[in-house]
Write a structure and sequence with these properties.
With 80 residues, the protein is an all-alpha fold. It is 84% helix and 0% strand. Helix 2 (27-48) crosses helix 3 (55-79). It is globular.
């Protein structure tokens, strides 16, 4: 059950990040990939800042912040 919840949070976080950054999602698979990678990046950033993402809502916020950050970094690299 844990992996399904992880993928579901990743999909929602990827969709939210896509809406924040571009105005649309990336499809189910793209949202999951962006959200899961964002969760890893968000976990790293939150850990550096000494923050904790407790619970379902905290995990979603952390994943979304990480996914937005990931999309921002990819956008900057694409412009170079």
């Amino acid at each position: 059950m844990g992996i399904i919840l992880f993928l579901l949070i990743g999909a929602v976080a990827g969709w939210l990040a896509g809406n924040f950054m571009k105005g649309g999602g990336f499809g189910v698979v793209g949202n999951i990939i962006v959200g899961v990678l964002g969760a890893v990046l968000g976990g790293f950033v939150f850990n550096l800042l000494g923050l904790s993402a407790g619970g379902l809502v905290g995990s979603l916020v952390m994943s979304t912040v990480g996914a937005v950050l990931l999309l921002y970094i990819v956008g900057v690299i694409k412009r170079l």
